[in-house]
Design a protein that fits this description.
The protein is mainly α. Helix content is 60%, strand content 4%. Strands 1-2 form a two-stranded antiparallel ribbon. A two-stranded antiparallel sheet has the order 3-4. Helix 1 crosses helix 7, helix 7 runs parallel beside helix 9 (200-215) and helix 21 runs antiparallel to helix 22 (526-543).
Length: 544
């Protein structure tokens, strides 16, 4: 807890200072220091994304950013805004922050933390954005903007990768400043994402803040649209928010097109990043083929697409079985999956239908636009891969709209307190959820509470790997473990080695003397096939 607290005290003033710089160009999203911190996140993320095309996000980048942020924070005496809070609000803020930091000290348990988040951050801090890195390890082609933001602070400000915990603290300040008490109801659920740099937490928290500003009548179209695109860039399944801000700009405010230019710039940067790392504008969709030489092999894209279809049905059916489904089977089997996923899917459809009826009855322009945006997003998700983690944000949005005027401070604090106790209990005593909700698979990886958490957050260490070579690529593979969260780079997950071998290809360095020149895939010649087969057989024998 102590080390996360130090990270928060260190990073938040830097974000506020950076946000002050953003204010000079684009104005403020809302009054208060939280809005400045959020603007700082936006500005730093954009600058670091641009830098990562050319240099790694190492300690020199971090020191430069920290120095500039601190300079503006103290020169403009932004710390004085902390004195605007009442004594009761400060007490409540400290209490909530204590719970947030406590939750953030638990061990990471989301599997993507080990297979995607940490490896991505390793690549960014050591090399920056690598051209065609999806050819090495397909998942790394995502390179979320949120991980770019985390990577820049991971050298010494936040070495335990708890940037989500810090964001929740900023979210708390926003709630207190804007008296948006209903948002306290969302914080306990978000505590479950605070142990990892999961993109799910920032897109949910930031989208709720932007939606709150829209409901409150905020007319800063430039920043609202820019933030909406930024959230989309973190996770494209949030497409409903830029749709909403765009529709609101056109049909309600009828604003000048120039108001959208900042957001369009962020969108183009997002496309450029994806083309650089993946070969197509939006990961993992193979649309918008520009013919770049480093795009993934068609067989690997096909395998990814098939896997997405299987994930729609929680891996409870093979791809061949799903292909034989009738239209009725597609719908019925999705609704009646084994375990908790079935309940979530049914609630999702019931919520959408209920909200659509609500929008029809109310006939309020803003509510109608929100409904249209959510329906478009839902159709796209259902068509691509209808996994609950792609539409969980819809529940938060509908809850906010339905109960916006109902939850005052007292009710919200009561809900926050009750749910926080529940979720901290689950994190501390995971056996409870493992026994009573076995279909919630992430629950099986929750480690429980350890005394050392009072000083530092819990982390995992493995450091077991083997080194292999195929063609001009020398690489590392985690030993007897599917992920490479602390394996030296370049590292490849075993599943992608098997996929490459099956497709008759293997990743190779574009320039054998410079890893920053990126990766391509190459059809294996006889010698390379023998090398790859030896690697695959060794891995299989080791895993036994």
């Amino acid at each position: 807890m102590i080390l996360i607290l130090f990270s928060a005290i260190f990073i938040i003033p830097v974000l506020i200072g950076a946000g002050k710089i953003m204010d000079l160009f684009w104005g403020s999203l809302s009054p208060g220091i939280a809005a400045k911190a959020l603007a700082g996140i936006l500005g730093i993320s954009i600058v670091w994304t641009l830098l990562s095309f050319f240099i790694p996000l190492n300690i020199y980048v971090e020191i430069g950013t920290l120095s500039l942020g601190f300079l503006f924070f103290f020169r403009n005496k932004l710390y004085l805004e902390l004195y605007h809070f009442s004594g009761k609000d400060i007490f409540l803020m400290i209490t909530i922050s204590f719970i947030i930091i406590l939750a953030g000290t638990f061990s990471p348990y989301i599997l993507d933390h080990f297979g995607y988040y940490v490896p991505t951050i390793q690549w960014l801090t050591e090399y920056g954005l690598i051209k065609g890195i999806s050819n090495l390890d397909f998942t790394l082609g995502q390179m979320s903007v949120w991980h770019i933001f985390q990577a820049g602070f991971s050298n010494f400000s936040d070495p335990f990768l708890r940037i989500n915990t810090i964001l929740l603290s900023i979210y708390t300040i926003y709630i207190m400043e804007r008296k948006a008490w209903i948002h306290l109801c969302f914080l306990p659920v978000l505590l479950l994402f605070s142990q990892s740099p999961s993109p799910d937490l920032p897109v949910i928290a930031l989208s709720l803040i932007i939606l709150n500003e829209i409901i409150a009548g905020n007319r800063n179209t430039t920043l609202l649209f820019a933030f909406s695109i930024f959230i989309f860039a973190i996770k494209p399944t949030m497409i409903w928010l830029p749709l909403l801000t765009f529709l609101r700009t056109v049909f309600i405010f009828k604003s000048d097109f120039k108001k959208l230019l900042f957001g369009i710039f962020i969108l183009l940067l997002f496309f450029a990043k994806n083309i650089w790392t993946f070969g197509y504008p939006v990961f993992p969709v193979a649309l918008g083929d520009l013919g770049v030489s480093w795009k993934p092999n068609p067989e690997i894209l096909k395998t990814s697409s098939q896997y997405a279809v299987q994930k729609t049905y929680d891996m409870q059916y093979s791809y061949e079985e799903i292909q034989r489904f009738s239209t009725f089977d597609y719908i019925r089997n999705w609704f009646f999956l084994d375990g908790i996923k079935s309940i979530i899917n049914i609630l999702f459809m019931v919520s959408l239908i209920t909200f659509s009826a609500f929008a029809w009855i109310k006939k309020r322009k803003l509510v109608t636009l929100i409904c249209i945006s959510l329906l478009i997003k839902s159709i796209l998700v259902l068509a691509f891969s209808a996994q609950y983690r792609f539409f969980i944000d819809v529940f938060f949005v509908i809850f906010l709209i339905f109960f916006y005027d109902y939850f005052d401070k007292r009710k919200s604090v009561t809900v926050f307190s009750t749910l926080s106790i529940l979720f901290i209990f689950i994190l501390s005593f995971p056996n409870f959820i493992q026994e009573h909700l076995p279909s919630f698979r992430p629950g099986n990886f929750i480690a429980g509470f350890e005394k050392k958490q009072f000083y530092r957050p819990s982390t995992y260490e493995y450091h077991q790997y083997n080194t292999y070579e195929v063609g001009n690529l020398k690489f590392n593979v985690s030993k007897n473990y599917p992920f490479n969260f602390d394996t030296p780079l370049p590292a490849i997950s075993t599943s992608f080695i098997f996929d490459d071998g099956k497709a008759g290809i293997f990743p190779q360095l574009s320039d054998k003397n410079d890893i920053r020149k990126g990766f391509i895939w190459k059809k294996m010649i006889s010698k390379e096939k023998i090398e790859a087969e030896d690697v695959i057989n060794t891995i299989k024998n080791t895993d036994k």
